[in-house]
Amino acid sequence: MVRVKPFAAIRPPKNIVTEVAAPPYDVLNSEEAKKMAGEKSLLHITKPEIDFDPILEDHDPRVYDEAVKNFKEWQTKGWLRQDPKECYYVYAQTMGDRTQYGLVLCAHTDDYATGKIKKHELTRKDKEDDRMIHVRIQNANIEPVFFAYKDDKVLEDIIAETVKKEPEYDFVDENGFGHKFWVIDDDATIARITSEFSSNVDAFYVADGHHRTAAAARVGAEKKAQNPHHTGNEEYNFFMAVCFPESQLKILDYNRVVKDLNGRTKEQFLRALELDFDVKEMGAEIYHPAHLHNFSMYLDGKWYSLEALPGRYDDADPIGVLDVTILSHLVLDKVLGIKDLRTDDRIDFVGGIRGLGELKRRVDSGEMMVAFALCPVSMQQLINIADTGNIMPPKTTWFEPKLRSGLAIHTLG
């Protein structure tokens, strides 16, 4: 079973939460962050390159120094304050008619090392290194990771009871998504939560934040090696996560745009696709994938349906059944010559929250030549893949809404 603990969060006073809270560091580029960041915004801590004119590269040593300075300054000015005792927290997010309720807690780095915190994506060392530096220099997890766990009735009841009370924070962000936050400071309830995870929750599933999870585990291992009296109970063994029951989560599609047709004409490209797909022209109106193994393609002002032919995929294989796998093997690799989705600069990825109109826009602008839309992966598919130790292709899952950064920060002691 997994090991969790409460923590004394560093967080903003209620009256300025909307000024401090910000999108995650990897949702905005530096220029967008600079435009959005008000005086108190956490973006000055998570993307401190925006404090320089011109904006610096985010790996510049001066950027890391600025991050440390700003984190201290925000606490000195009272824009961030630490709770007087260790608590759990409930964080609710509302998108349209759907609300998901997560427990904000600290997970243990040993559970990552032993596979109880299960991943479904590979990480890039350069991104891991960058996040590791941020954790190390701040001695804190500034932003949480996003975990799922299998539904648990005891935890469900505790959350339901908690959210009957007035929330500590209640606001709507610039995207129209609602955010509510409650503090669980009752000792008996805290003990019940800790006990329930250690008794009945056998795994966490990384939904979003593979690099931050890996970075936190590496910092914990680093501090363990430096401490001859290490016990495993030190605060540096823990990192902050928001954990949602899997039935409440919904994965959106994660689509692809490509710069060229790998030297083929449009006609040659379409003929190459017909070897593995039933290709139908659908016209100028946006066409959404109708079902699994059906793809939407936008090329030269027209939408197409691509239906994978029988025998071109393996529904018995947890990876082979995925539409991202089918598209990668039969189109991106076989026809377009894109071998590595993580490094090839001919391809880019568009989260489903932006809609298929964004695919059309990027092709019509001339920036890209062709776009592909896919059916999203299900939570059950993600869990099956993680449980079997498999790894999804890059850029497979897009979760929305994103966790708002700045509602809670965990210091490593």
Question: What is the topology?
Answer:
Layout lengths: L3 E2 L4 E2 L5 H4 L9 H7 L6 H4 L14 H16 L4 E2 L5 E8 L2 E11 H5 L3 E2 L6 H14 L1 E2 L3 E5 L3 H10 L6 E4 L5 E7 L2 H14 L3 E5 L1 H17 L11 E8 L5 E2 L1 E5 L7 H8 L3 E7 L10 E6 L2 E7 L14 H11 L13 E5 L4 H9 L5 E4 L5 H9 L10 E2 L10 E2 L2
Parallel strand pairs: 6-11, 8-12
Antiparallel strand pairs: 1-5, 2-3, 4-5, 4-10, 5-12, 7-21, 8-11, 9-10, 13-20, 14-18, 14-19, 15-17, 16-17, 16-19
Helix pairs in contact: 4-6, 6-9
Comma- or semicolon-separated keywords:
alpha+beta, single chain, six-stranded antiparallel beta sheet, globular, 13 helices, nine-stranded mixed beta sheet, 413 residues
Task: Briefly say what this structure is.
This protein has 413 residues and is of the alpha+beta class. The chain is 31% helix and 24% strand. The two termini are 25 Å apart.
